Amino acid sequence: MLHRLRAAARRLKGELLALSLAARDPRTPWPARLLALLVLAYALSPIDLIPDFIPVLGQLDDLLLVPAGLWLALRLIPPPVLADARAQAAAQPARLARSAWGLLLMLGLYALAVWLAWRFWLGPGWGTAPDPGR
Predict the structure, then answer these.
(1) Quick one: pLDDT at residue 120?
(2) DSSP string for residues in 59-120
(3) Contacts of 97 (CB under 8 A, 6+ apart)
(4) Of 10, 36, 54, 98, which sees the most CB atoms within 10 A?
(5) Taking the model in full, what pTM does it have?
(6) In whole angstroms, what is the distance from residue 47 CA to residue 32 CA?
(7) How many whole angstroms separate alpha carbon 40 and alpha carbon 66?
(8) Long-range contacts of range 82-88, CB-CB < 8 Å, 24 or more positions apart?
(9) Could you report the per-residue pLDDT of 30-67, keeping only the tens digit for each?
C-alpha cells in the first residue's frame, strides 16, 4: 500500500510539472492557463487554505482540492499541448519550488475571508451615521 501511495505522489508531482509547462505554452487557451496557474499557486503555496494542524480537514484539502483542480485544469488543456508538456516533464524532471505567488494568493484569500466575516458579524448598517430624525 505504501508503494502505491508513493507511486501516486510521484505521478502527481509529474502532472504538476507538466501542468506548469503547459500553462506557459502559447497554444494553451487563457481559461485553462488561468486555472492551471491557480492550481499551481495553491499546490506550491507554503500555506494551505485549511491549515494542516486542524485534524482531518487540514489533510482533506490537500487530498481533494489539489487533485480535483489538477484534473479540471488538465481537462481544459488541448491534448497535443498536454502530450508535449508531459513528454518534456518526463525528459527533464525538475523540482517545482515553493510559490511566492501562491503565498500571496492564500494570504489574499485569508484577508477576504476575514473581511467577509467582519462585515457579516457587524451587519450591513455598520459604519453609517445614525438617522437624526429618530
Answers:
(1) 83
(2) HHHHHHHHHHHHHHHHHHS-HHHHHHHHHHHHHS--PPPP-HHHHHHHHHHHHHHHHHHHHH
(3) 44
(4) 36
(5) 0.69
(6) 24
(7) 9
(8) 82/18, 82/22, 84/21, 84/22, 84/25, 85/18, 85/19, 85/21, 85/22, 85/25, 86/14, 86/18, 88/18, 88/21
(9) 999 999 988 888 887 777 767 777 777 777 777 788 88
Cell triple for 64: 481533494
Grid cell digits, residue 95? 523540482
Q: What would you report as the CA-atom Rg of the chain, rounded to the nearest whole angstrom?
A: 20
Task: Give me the residue label for grid cell 458579524.
Answer: 121
Residue 12 CB contacts under 8 Å (≥ 6 apart), including other chains: 66, 67, 70
What DSSP line would sit under 98-110, residue for residue?
A: P-HHHHHHHHHHH
Residue whose C-alpha cell is 507538466 = 18
103: closest CA among 39, 48, 37? 48
DSSP state, residue 128: P
Distance CA 119, CA 52 (A): 27
